[in-house]
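Posting this for the archive.
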Amino acid sequence: MNTSKAFASGLAALGILLLVLSWAFESLASYSWYFAIGAFVALSFVPSSRLIRVGFATVAMAAMVFFFTEFISRTGVGNRSVDLTEDDRYTLTDGTRSILSELTEPVTINYYVTRDVDGTPSSYKRHIPRVDSFLRQIEGLAADDLVTLNFIDPKPNTDQEDAALLDQVQQVPVTQDDNLIFGASISSLDKKTVIPLFSPSQETQLEFQVVSAIAEVSRRETPVVGLVSAHNLAMGGQTNRGWLFYQLLQRSYDVANLGMMPTDALEVEYEKRKWGDAPDYLDPEKIPVILCVHPAGITPEAEFALDQYLLRGGTVIACVDPLSLVAQQSGRPQFPGMPPQGGTLPSSTLPKLFAKHNINFRESQVIIDRVYAPSNNPRIILLNDEAMTVKDDISLSKIQNLAFLMSGGFTGANGKPMGPGLEVSKLVESSYEYTFVSDQTLNSPDAANQLRFALGSRREGDEKQTYVALLSGTFETSFPDGDPAIESDDSGDEDDDKEEVDEEKKSKALATGTGRGNLYLISDSDFLYDGMAYNSRRMFNTEVVEPITGNGAFMFNILDQATGSKYLIGARARAEVYRPFTVLNEKQAEFEKARGEEMEKLRQKRDNAQSEIQRITSELAKNNNSQRNEQVRSEIAKYNKEIVDANKEIREKQKSYQAEVDSLKATIFWRNVLYVPLGVIIIGLSVFIWRKQQTKAR
């Protein structure tokens, strides 16, 4: 026993010595608490009194449990959780996990939140722990611990508050004297982005906000956007310096103008960016997204390049048009009432891709949507929140409206759905009340009357037309015979060298996708043109570009996802955390149905009595008789009594109904509160009875 005490005393002395040294040497400072606990545990074995040893051991055990829990919570193991919610709302998406696992550079998250502010709104109090937990989870899942999370509580008039203000984190006034700071700056090397405020109203977008910011700062170069268009977006427009949308596009992205022959332009674009030798195909690693605006007259060779790009995991945003106003303005009409001759073709499509993926798009057929078309100009479609059917898609985030001009629509061909074998999201759809008009109708001298007739005619389609859709997945080629640029010659006189080149091209052509591709379908191209997306005006000596619809913001939302990371395409906002009480609502609906008939009879009885009083009063006025005899007064009194009695019964029924609802709420509440304790009590009693029986058996 003396030997044990001596050994314990030695350990206690060593623990105390290391604790003192940890105060002197910074390298040992992080271990000071562990030295203290070790010394305390060793001391618990020294006293002779059992009571003192038990006291030491109890305190030491509590301290060990506390610090062990704290240690685990700071590791990846401590951030693991089990999501038992019905819709997996607390489970990170596969895209987020992929982005975190592919990080190659360190990312620092400076998370600013003032925690002790009197008067903080309850919505923020609930949201702060949610953000705390989420950011810890992000830190724990990052590859090689490349994400560093700094919790900063910026007290007033401190360096931390100054740092938050320098990072442009927003201050929210909660009282006359106090502000709440609740945001983050996310940086990697020389790049930084800021989330100025974690707003509770945007809780469903928390994952996308943080992960897209991480993807943005970890990207080392300005993202490249490939542009394929029959229009020259760099010319014309309101300012004659290019479309306003194109000017804004150049500010945010490195635009590669590929024209209408994408592979032919690659050599120049690769040389400009010093990428080395250009391949004979579009590479998603170099150009993550291709914006295709009105590909009128596209050749099979150009469409084949887009097809192979999709198969390699690229993203194509196809803005096609049944009748482009910009294209019509590029030509001159030779005869009155005839469409423009020359210039850019007014209609555009991707014939091979659409045929392969069962996409029906009517060329030269414009939709007149009776619900969304303004009566003074039915060529325009003004789309609001009701038309945006996928409410949680990030590309539609904060988009209040879209405006399309002479738009078409997408449906599945031959009565079958679009994109067999692919994931299809119909982001924006028409109403059921639509019809199509031809380009001849729109360009005829009697166009105004024809459009008024089309707008007034009520035609309900069998299915809605889709204005914007997203097809995602592993694509199959639309060119089963290979590259259409390879000419087949059955004469047998073909040059041997050319034959070898053609065979090599055929072997390189993909038949099935090697990555997840994305194809956005937008049924209008003019929606990005000046006057539809943006307007320009001069303020003093400065040109100011102003958005007039959500068109431009919608397109930039898509581009931000596509260039930020391929894993962000089609990202969804999470479901609302606060769910409705579905059981209670169903029960209330049953009550309302049962009480509805009784209440309706009483209301009808009251309304009939009021109608009779009005009839009697009207007859007296009609006969110029303002005097009411005894019989008339008696009838009016009788009907007034019926009204009073009916109102009284209605109130009683409403009170009874409310009492039943309150009783239901109380029942549900007490069930939820008592189920777990009752279950524990029942299990405990069962174990107690079983053990007692086992004791008796012995």
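The two ends are 37 Å apart (CA to CA). The chain has four domains: 2-73, 98-217, 224-488+496-568, 582-697.
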